[in-house]
Amino acid sequence: MSKSWNDIENHWIRLRDQPTFVLETPCVLIDKDGDLFETTLFDLIDYINMPPTLSRQLLKDYLQNAVEYGVEAARSKMMDTYKSNSQKFFEELALIKQLSRNDTLGDIDDILHAMDVANKGFIAAPRKMLIVQMGESRADLLLVSPPSNDGRKMVATQ
């Protein structure tokens, strides 16, 4: 795949026109081979090891609440709302975290950190997009502004 601005321009336009920060906020993932993938903040979970038994809906609710209210408030809200299901959910998250200590892709805390970084870029002026650059042993989180003509030498045409 090409690594030019054209590959991510449409992504930035969608991000620019998005009225609020949500889990469906677009971001770009660049894998170890340099290939670009448009994804969403929520779909970053597809790049970490998650057991198939973990409820995607509970995970989505937890992440949305964590983005809106913070991690501790999200946990409390989940415990109040889902009662026994949330206890099992948080036990599975703890197991994922324990198993991922030596994993190159990270855990749910890394996803929460990426969402926090993306939110800071979302509220910045000009709005910045999150690019996740996967490496051999970790991922780098980058906030990127769109290219502009500022500072470029423009040739006048008549």
Can you tell me about this structure?
By secondary structure, the chain is α+β, with helices and mostly antiparallel strands. Strands 2-1-3-4 form a four-stranded mixed beta sheet. A hairpin with a 4-residue loop joins β3 and β4. The termini are far apart.
Task: Quickly describe the structure.
By secondary structure, this protein is an alpha+beta fold.
H-E string: HEEHHHHEE
Residue stretches low in confidence (pLDDT < 50, at least 5 long) are 149-155
- The rounded Rg comes to 18 Å
Structural class: alpha+beta
Largest sheet: 4 strands, mixed
Shape label:
globular
Number of helices: 5
Sheet with the most strands: spatial strand order: 2-1-3-4
Note the beta-strand portion. 5-15%
Helical percentage? 40-55%
Overall pLDDT level? 81
How many distinct beta strands? 4
Reconstruct the topology from this structure.
Blueprint: H1 6-17, E1 26-30, E2 36-40, H2 56-69, H3 71-82, H4 84-99, H5 108-123, E3 129-134, E4 139-144
Parallel strand pairs: 1-3
Antiparallel strand pairs: 1-2, 3-4
Helix pairs in contact: 2-3, 3-4
Which labels suit this protein?
158 residues; alpha+beta; 5 helices
